[in-house]
Amino acid sequence: MEARKKKLPIGIENFEEIRTKGFYYVDKTGLIKELLENWGKVTLFTRPRRFGKSLNMSMLKSFFELGGRKEIFEGLEILKEVSLCEEYMGKFPVISISLKGIDAGSFNTARELAVQIINGEARRFQHLLDSDRLTIYDKDAYTALLRADMSEAVLYSSLKILSELLEKHYGRKVILLIDEYDVPLSKAFEQGYYDQMIVLIRNLFQQVLKTNDSLELAVLTGCMRISKESIFTGLNNLKVLSVADVRFDEYFGFTDSEVRELLEYYDLSRNYGDVKEWYDGYRFGNVEVYCPWDVVNYCDELRADSNALPQNYWSNTSSNEVVRKFIQGADIGTTKNEIERLVAGEVIKKEIHQELTYKDMYNSIDNIWSILFTTGYLTQRGKPERKSFYLAIPNMEIREIFIEQIMDFFKENIKKNGDAVNAFCNALQKGEAEEVEKRFSDYLRKTISIRDTFVKKSKKENFYHGILLGLLGYKDTWIISSNEESGDGYSDILVRSEDEEIGIVIEVKYAENGKLEEACQEALQQIERKGYQEELQEEGIEHILKYGIACYKKRCKVRLIGEGEIFA
Asked: Is residue 436 part of a domain?
């Protein structure tokens, strides 16, 4: 009998749970060795979301914490480092908090959530109340950390107080782990209490990281480095390791060999090509990595359905606001062209500023380039030149996000150009093919086109299909059908105009080689061959216009067969 496969750890960020409850684990314990050998008093790892930051922090906690279980590391790389394990494994009190839960509509609520996080971590150490190494005053200080009505002063010094008490009790300095340190700042910026949150985080960090003799080492994670905010003011012992740094480059995300091994384990090696096309392409330092969240989710889908298609798992965990802002700000011809080049798989050289305030993020297109890079929507190619990086869209998943946002932006703009859209629709129903061609070409020139050499022809056709649907949807008296069964197939677009008793059939083709006339003829032949007009005829619509529309980059060709005409 075939042995039961390990479970896939979807959404599980607890290292001990993964190791003890039969989940598949990609070994990242080499991070521990590198962290200790490349010593930094305070280390900040900045990586995009869903790249294993929280799981790695949980792994560090399991390794360092007093009373930790050595057996959960059996078979992993770190146990080969015998002397290092003897010196550090299970030898330290560990304070471990995550700030990603501080998501509130007001500062008061956010502060309450911060207090709750401190309360919760402090409660793990209630044995301090029975410690014979702590004075009554020490115990009073500890008790203050358990109060829901914690004062401002106590909140700011809470982590420092806790580390001092733990050192006094155990006789060992403390390991401090702070996960998702920048989430409260992001949420505060969105909700309008940013300046207040800056004060809270700055004071909390300065106390525990700058003036704390009880600290052995600290590790922080986040998506962005926020140093201009003075959060880390005067902290000379801070080591920042971003997506551009070659150190620790393989410990966040899955490497190609790790993905191949995972796919082989689950008998999914045949899907390697799809996994690579959709979820690979991120470059951290000198290593190309996959997004772990995507790979694990897609493998889970494939185990249930071998024919499952890749999906945008990563994008569904975010609003993709930064991409939307980027596209909205691309009115300048240069930026619009650069977006088209990115979607086409090309590389763009840009100066990147990895230290930005949240207030600066959307101040300029130049800043948004930096945010796109930092947050994983763009990645580096080749070697950077000082602050200049060669940027590209990493994979098909992110390319789809860009295309979706481009389409959404186009639809929003349609509402602002009512007269022009109405003129296009009027020309369409009057059978004025030349006017339709002219006005559709105008729209193509104004929008961001999809000329991606990596995208299949059908995907490109879908893009132009979507633009047409957006334009046609302006007419609230028209009934628009897309990919509706009619005749011997499925027509691209059917339009029913009840007021004028007119039906319109549209077949869209992408002219791969730029031969628009040939593609137009192919579209019209398909309409005739498959009888796409039959659905409209059965509804009693007598006047039917049949359009073949061919597109190539920002050019189009429109041809028409009117009622009573036969296309040859």
From this structure: yes
**Helix, strand, coil fractions of the chain, as percent rounded to 5:** 45, 15, 35
Q: Beta strand 94-98 with 174-179: parallel, antiparallel or unpaired?
A: parallel
Name which of 321, 315, 350, 316 is nearest 335 in CA terms.
350
CATH code where residue 555 lies:
3.90.1570
Adjacent-strand bridge partners of 82: none
- For residue 323, the one-letter residue type is V
Torsion on CA atoms 28, 30, 36, 38, rounded to nearest 10? -100
Domain enclosing residue 443, as ranges: 417-561
Q: Does 188 lie in the same domain as 84?
A: yes
Mean predicted confidence (pLDDT) in 71-92: 96
Last residue of a domain, one of 400, 434, 450: 400
61 in any annotated domain: yes
Place of tokens 């509804």: 539
How far apart (Å, rounded) are the C-alpha atoms in residues 301 and 208?
44
pLDDT in tens, 503-527: 999 999 999 888 999 999 999 999 9
Compute the chain's Rg from CA coordinates.
29
- List Cα–Cα distances, 494 to 40, 422, 437, 505, 531, in angstroms: 64, 18, 18, 5, 12
| Domain final residue, candidates 241, 272, 290 | 241
Domain count, the chain: 4
Answer yes or no: do 202 and 106 share one domain: yes
Residues 277 and 342 in one domain: no
Q: pTM for this one?
A: 0.86
Say yes or no: 202 and 123 in one domain.
yes
Which residue, chain included where needed, has tokens 């022809």?
A: 457
Q: Is the pLDDT of residue 73 over 60?
A: yes
Whole-angstrom distance, CA of residue 251 vs CA of residue 292 = 11
Q: Give the span between the Cα atoms of 495 and 503, in whole angstroms.
A: 6
In this prediction, residue 541 carries a pLDDT of 86
Tell me the C-alpha distance between 163 and 176, whole Å: 8
**Looking at the domain assignment, is residue 1 inside a domain?**
no
| Per-residue buried b or exposed e for 110-129, using 16+ beta carbons within 10 Å of the residue's own CB | bbbbbbebbeebbeebeebe
Q: Residue 268's pLDDT is what? A: 97
What is the model's pLDDT at position 451?
59
The answer for 505, left when phi > 0, alpha when psi is -120 to 50, beta otherwise, is: beta
- Residue 450 and residue 531 in one domain: yes
The better pLDDT of the pair 279, 360 is held by: 279
Given this model, what pLDDT does residue 67 score? 87
Residues 432 and 555 in one domain: yes
Predicted pLDDT of residue 564: 45
